[in-house]
Amino acid sequence: MNTVLNCEIELDSQDESLKLLGHNGEIRKYIQSRSPVRIVDRGAKVVVIGEEEPANAVCTMLSDMLNAVRRGYTPSLSDFEYALATLQSPESDERGALLSQQPAAIRSDLHIRARTQGQKQYLDAINAYDITLAIGPAGTGKTYLAMAVAISALLNRQVQRLVLTRPAVEAGERLGFLPGDLAQKVNPYLRPLYDALYSMVDLERARRLIDQECIEVAPLGFMRGRTLDNAFVILDEAQNTTVDQMMMFLTRLGHHSKAVVTGDITQVDLPHNTTSGLVDARRVLQNLKGIGMVHLTNRDVVRNPLVQQIINAYETAGKRSLQDKGEQGIPHSELSTNRNSGAMQNQA
Questions:
Q1: Spatial contact of 199 and 347, defined as CB atoms under 8 Å apart
Q2: How many other C-beta atoms lie within 10 A of the C-beta of residue 337?
Q3: What single string gives the DSSP state of each residue in 255-294?
Q4: Do 59 and 6 form a contact (C-beta atoms < 8 A)?
Q5: Which domains, from first to last, does the chain contain?
Q6: Is the full-model pTM beyond 0.90?
Q7: What is the pLDDT of residues 153-194, one digit of tens each?
Q8: How far is Cα 171 from Cα 166, in angstroms, rounded to an integer?
Q9: Which residue spans within 63-182 are E strands per DSSP?
């Protein structure tokens, strides 16, 4: 017969209960739907009721989250989703410390910080290496976290300028048919970088920094022939660079500068039979000291929880499609060709 356990967590205030269990018990209901326990909110305490093993695990998770709350962090539903997914893993031992660490951005009210172990490794790599390659699916915070560190470095005067770039590669749309001059044509491809920037720095200040050329947002082609000293450089959507473009970008780095390269190698929009510069760089640079390389996974997705399910569904469908084609006798070399993602762009 299984032992039933009542685990109690003492609270200091109603505000702690609200942050821990969510408005109208939203988080409490979510945990109960994902774990065989019952959670009772008694005002001054939270009681977890269930069989010993799951009740202990949920109680430890809630205690860790409460510690993060007391250090100024308000956990989100996706934090609890990740915590429940790693309930029995070694990662769970560091959950409270992970969420309550110092924010990555200069504005503490944004609460931009690592929310998964993969994201923590990513931030650690950015701080430790001059060049960091981050590869992972949409929603893992690749661009957003890099932007947070870069803006902090700029506003703290650790670097003199911030350079944001991405390749202007067509993804189902035709660049030539867009209205306007060259700058207006490529601007839509750079919009995600502006969006991330404006979410961290107020519009007026961001525009002033751009006017002063402290922040530059430009297509990758504009990087050719330059040397970037005292700069923090972010190359986004790097899976859509060619091998030559990637080499060109990586050799732009000057003294006292950092570069972060982000991309999702499952969403390559290059022409067929064109090798992705990011895929090639991962192979060529993997044993080079001084370069950090981080692989984020579906478990690091921190957008709407539905995003993770969508990614998993597409991965499952892709594997099934490859298996079906293999059974039909299609050569393996043809199956392994980079697949185009159409209009699906990684906005992480």
A1: no
A2: 10
A3: TT-EEEEEE-TT---SPTTPPPHHHHHHHHHTT-TTEEEE
A4: no
A5: 4-99 (3.30.1370.10), 108-302+309-335 (3.40.50.300)
A6: no
A7: 888 889 999 999 988 764 444 445 445 544 555 566 677 778
A8: 13
A9: 131-135, 161-166
